[in-house]
Every structure is written in C-alpha cells, then in structure tokens.
Design goal:
By secondary structure, the chain is mostly beta strands. The chain is 0% helix and 44% strand. The strands form 8 sheets. Strands 22, 23, 24, 26, 27, 29 and 30 form a 7-stranded antiparallel sheet that branches. Strands 3, 5, 7, 10, 12 and 13 form a 6-stranded antiparallel sheet that branches. The radius of gyration is 34 Å and the shape is elongated.
C-alpha cells in the first residue's frame, strides 16, 4: 500500500498494539464499505489511540420504513391521497378519516421481543387513535374511502393525549409475528383528530422490531497477550488480544492487584490513570458477553510507573509595565501589569532561577488575567537584564531579543494563562522577559504586588533523553465503511517512554 512510518520518543517496556479510526455514521442500516487507496504513516509522539471493536449482541433492533401509506376521507369518498406528505385520523361526529400503512419486514433472526409503530405528529390530540390490522388488498395509488379494506380484529394501544412536534409510539407486538408484510389501519376513537407525516415527508413512518437470540450459556475465551506499559508517572496503558464468543464479546473487566478496577466495552485497550508515580502494579483481564458470562483471567502483566519529574515554581523578583503614551513614567509598584499594541504598552518580568538540577524539560510563564480578557493575546520575548523595576520607562526600556514565542489568541478573563517559554530559559540564572501585544485588544495581568503573582514553572529531568523510539511496524489500514478506515500497528519501544504517535495520510500529518 505505499505507506511509511517513523518513531518519535519511545518506551523500553513493550507498549500495547494501537488502533485508530475515522468517524463512522450511525443509523438503522449499514452501508457496504467502499475500498479506497490510502497512504498512511505513523510517528510516535503523544498518548495512545484506542478504538472499539463491534461485536454481535444477543439482541438486535431493526427499523423498517413504510412501503405504502395513505389517508382515506369519508367526506371525499372517491379521492385518493397516496402521494401527500400528510396522514390524518379523525372520528366521532366529524366525517371520519383513517390512515392505512404497509411495511415489509425481512431479515429477522430470533424471537420478537417488541414491535413498535412510530409516527411523527404534526398536530396534537387529547384522545389519540388505535391500530388495527387489515388485508393486503389495498394499493397506495388507488385506495379511497369507498374501496378501502375493512379493519380486522380489535384495535391495540388506543392512545390518549399525544403532543405535536414529536414521535408517538404504538405497541403492535401482538400484530407482528416475524418476517412478512404487515398492513395497519389507524382509526380514531374520538372527534379530536390528529395529523401525522407520511412516507413522502421528512419523518417517515417506521416499524421498529427488536429480536432476542436463544439463551447464551457459553463463556468467552480468555483474553491473551496482556501487556502493561507505563506511559507516564500517572498512567499505565494496557492492551490484550481480543476474546472470542459464540454470540459476541460485549466488554472486559480490568483487575489490578486482584481487585476489580473497571468494566469497559468491547475494546482491547485501557488506560489506567489512577496510578501513583514510582509504584509497581499487576493487572489481569476477564471477557464478558451479553448474557453476563465471564471468561477466566488473562495472563498477568506488571508495570512500574516512573518517578514524577522535579517541578519548581519561581515568582517574579521584578516586574513593571511601560507605556508609550507616558514615555517617562515608571509603574514598578503597580499591582497590575498591562499589554497593548495601540498605543503600545509592554510588560517586563525578571525571575531568578536557582537550585535546579538536571536538564530543563519545560518552562512555563504563568500570568493571572484580570477583568479584561482579550480576543488576541500577546507574545513573549527575551530581553537583557539592564533594567530595574523602580526606574524602567518606555524611553529607557531594553530592546527585545530574538523572535517571539507562544503568541496567544483568546485569553479568558479572571483565569491563569500559561506561555511556553522553554526556548528562552537555558539554565539557572536570571531570566528577563518582555510580554508585548500583537493587536490593539489589550489585556491586564496581576503583578508581583498582587495576590496572584507572576510565576515561572520549570520542569527538569535527571538526565537528557537523546534516544529515538523504534519504528512502528506492521501498519494495517482497514476500510470498515464508506466513511471510516481503522488503523493498527505494532508498538514502538523507547529507553524512557513512548508517549504518542503521529498519523500521516498522503504524506501530510
């Protein structure tokens, strides 16, 4: 298939086999998959991707739309209404109106649990109709009041109040016995009529049938090849080979340390995000079917989560804003900081980074936003340390250094906003930053004189990781419908941890 893939950051413990899929449309009928050529690539980078595996359930529901419908009117006894978008029922002292419907039911298996005639109401009634059976001798194009076939038997599910703009359901289980053609008559029991949509309208009449298979006593096969991979300090990813069942696997039970941890659907991947850092765990899995039959335990799999990387938070040691319109004014003691681009207002911040060990993994500038958020936020630049909080003004401010980082879009008011300044923080020592606007929609932050002071949050690693993950292998693309392709591949390995995968289609991410 001309596909290619490469790995990013990886893991030394064998991670689970991964599956990814597109979006599938749902409905009463399944369309046949259309097999299309597809070039797909996978690159390791982020969290695991999972998809559910559809299994055959012990009960099935199918909906059949009407193949014929018409109303007949006593006041117009020779007129046909087979092509109108409306159906009607009326009785009592008014001229009667009745509605005829025909459905063809096919492909059922198992005993019928329920049969529901569903009709969409366009005008309400306080006393709704009942449903009768009739012979198959009428035709949608020719039926009139004069030639209509007679009702058979007694009516079922005689309705009371029925609202407008909603579906009304009639229980017709006593009138439906299996596959075949069914003819119904809706006849009123009162002079309060009701209007419905026909099969020529948007909301077509439906006959919804649920069937049940025979009692299932066979247990699923045991899950196999369970593996547990520590994806982070607070997450262990599990994967296993799916179980088989005579009817269908409906879910799995996840056990940790011998105790039930979670019950999930028919997927073969699970992320345990209730783990603690630097801790060992043991897992097993059982399979379930719709009759609540359980398999025996899978093999046991163990994993040890890594320790949490050191995180250190520094508060600003100096900050101030400078204002173009007041070029010689100093605002070093203000409890607020501000950024704007018209007229220009910039914010300067200084942090003293000390006491960290290991390489810097990330550095985040966190600022508390005031009552005026922005639809187009500022960016952050480096600058030198030649300014002081008590003397800096627009006139004597130091220049920005290099390109901006993390130019923000919308910034919500009364919340914290975080800027990724990792590229501007190389090591321990003073860090000087400028926050400058890229639009005329200004924003206000709390200064170090405020309750929520500016922060520089640094995450370090004890040793740098320069080893790339292994390549993902055995990539498979399977078209499961006209609008969905399922992907799967063998996991990559890494000396630290596989954290995610990148999906490429046609060479593009």
């Amino acid at each position: 298939m001309g596909s290619w893939f490469r790995a990013g950051r990886g893991d030394s413990v064998r991670p689970p086999r991964h599956r990814s899929h597109g979006t599938a449309k749902t409905g009463w009928r399944l369309s046949r998959p259309r097999f299309l050529p597809l070039a797909v690539a996978v690159v390791v980078l982020g969290s695991l991707i999972a998809t559910s595996t559809t299994q055959r359930a012990s009960a099935a529901t199918a909906a059949f739309t009407a193949i014929g419908d018409a109303q007949v009117r006593e006041a117009s006894p020779t007129t046909t209404y087979g092509t109108t978008t409306a159906l009607r029922v009326d009785a009592g002292s008014d001229p009667d109106v009745e509605t005829y419907l025909r459905f063809t039911v096919a492909g059922l298996s198992g005993s019928i649990q329920s049969a529901t005639l569903r009709l969409y109401v366009t005008s309400s009634t306080v006393d709704g109709p009942a449903v009768f059976t009739t012979a198959d001798t009428w035709d949608e194009a020719t039926i009139t009041w004069s030639n209509r076939t007679a009702r058979a038997g007694s009516g079922v599910d005689d309705k009371g109040s029925v609202p407008s703009g909603a579906w009304v359901d009639f229980n017709v289980a006593s009138l439906v016995s299996g596959s075949g053609t069914y003819n119904f008559v809706l006849a009123g029991m009162s002079s309060d009529g009701i209007d419905l949509q026909s099969r020529e309208a948007t909301n077509k009449p439906q006959l919804v049938i649920t069937t049940a298979a025979a009692t299932d006593t066979e247990v699923p096969s045991d899950p196999t090849n369970l593996s547990a991979t520590p994806a982070s300090a607070t997450r262990v990813d599990l994967s296993w080979t799916a179980s088989n069942d005579n009817v269908g696997v409906t879910g799995y039970e996840i056990y940790r340390g011998g105790s039930l941890l979670a019950t999930i659907g028919a997927v073969t991947i699970y992320a345990d995000q209730s783990v603690a850092a630097g801790t060992s765990y043991s897992y097993q899995v059982k399979a379930l079917d719709a009759a609540n039959n359980r398999s025996d335990f899978s093999n046991a799999a163990s994993a040890t989560t890594p320790a949490v990387p050191p995180i250190t938070t520094f508060t600003a040691t100096a900050d101030s804003y400078v204002q173009e319109s007041k070029s010689t004014s100093n605002y070093g003691t203000s409890s607020t900081l501000r950024v704007d681009a018209g007229p220009a207002v910039e914010t300067y911040l200084r942090f003293s980074v000390t006491g960290i060990s290991g390489s810097i993994q990330s550095a985040m500038l966190r600022l508390s936003v005031g009552n005026d958020g922005t639809s187009n936020g500022p960016a952050v630049y480096a600058t030198d340390g030649s300014w002081s909080e008590s003397a800096i003004t627009w006139t004597n401010r130091p220049a920005r250094i290099g390109a901006s980082v993390d130019d923000k879009g919308v910034v919500a008011k009364n919340a914290w906003v975080a800027f990724d300044v990792t590229s501007l923080v190389a090591d321990a020592g003073p860090v000087n930053l400028v926050v400058a606007g890229t639009s005329t929609d200004g924003v206000q932050f709390g200064s170090r004189e405020a309750a929520d002071k500016p922060q520089l949050v640094i995450t370090t690693a004890t040793a740098p990781d320069g080893e790339a993950p292994s390549d993902p292998a055995n990539l498979i693309a399977s078209p499961t419908s006209a609008t969905r392709v399922d992907l799967s591949w063998d996991p990559s390995n890494d000396n630290v941890a596989v954290t995610a995968y990148e999906i490429y289609r046609g060479g593009s991410l």
